[in-house]
C-alpha cells in the first residue's frame, strides 16, 4: 500500500510538471502568433498613414507649384516693363527749372561737401535720408579673473593655501571665453534609460499574465519577445493590472449610473416628483434635513386659503 501511494504521488508530480511545460510551450506559440498579428496590424496602419500623408503632401505640393508658376509668370510680365518701372521708381527726380537755374549742381556739390566720411546717404523715390555713423570708443579687454582673501592678521599665506598660479576659471586655448568648471569633483552617474513599452508589447504582457499569472518563467519567456529587463516587465505588468482594475471599476460605476437613470425614466413623472418632495425640506430649503425630517405633508395655496 505504501509503495502504491508513493508511485501515485510521483506520477501526479510528473503529470503536473508535464502540464506546466506544455503550458509554457503553448504560451510561447501563442505569443509568437500574437506578435505576428500585431506586426501585420501595425504594417496595415503604417500603410494607411503613409497613403493619407501622401495625399495631403500631394495637395500641399500642388498648391506650392501653382504659387511658383504664378510668381514666374508675374516676373516674366514685369521684366518686359523694366524701363518703365525704373522711370517711375527712380532714385531722384529733377525738374526742368533745376537744370535751367543750375541749382541742381550747386545743391549736389554742397550736399557732398556737407557729408563727411562717416555718413551714409540713402535715396528712394526722390527722397534722401542721411544716416550719421557713431564711432564707438576703444575699450580695454576684460582682465583675467582675480581673487582676494581677507586675513585676520598681516601674515604670510602658506604655500599650499596660496592662489598664485592657480586658475579658478578655465579658459580655452585662445584665452577669450571662460569654460565654467564644476564646483564638485564628483561625477554624476547618468540614470539608465527605461524601456518604453509600446501598445503591442502591452498586449503580449497582458495576455501572458492573464493566462499564466505573474510567474518567473513567464517573465523569462516575455524577455525573449521584449527587449526589456525582467524587473521592468514585472513593473509594467503590475501597472497594467492596476489600470485594468481602475477601468473595470469606472465601467461598473458608469453602468450603475446608467441603470439608475433608466430606473428614473421607467417611473412616471408624478412618482419621481413625490420622491423629490419627500427628500426636500421646505422649511430649511435643503435636501435630507435632519431637523424636520423628509416626510412632510404638501400644502397647496388653495387649501391654505380655504382653511383661513
From TrEMBL:
GO BP terms: heterochromatin formation
Ranges where the record places region Disordered: 1-23
Bias kind Low complexity: ranges: 1-10
Domain Histone-lysine N-methyltransferase CLF-like HTH: 197-237
Any one GO MF annotation of this record: histone H3K27 methyltransferase activity
One Gene Ontology CC term in the entry: nucleus
PANTHER family, sorted: HISTONE-LYSINE N-METHYLTRANSFERASE E(Z), HISTONE-LYSINE N-METHYLTRANSFERASE EZA1
The name this protein goes by in its record: Histone-lysine N-methyltransferase
Classification of source organism: Eukaryota, Viridiplantae, Streptophyta, Embryophyta, Tracheophyta
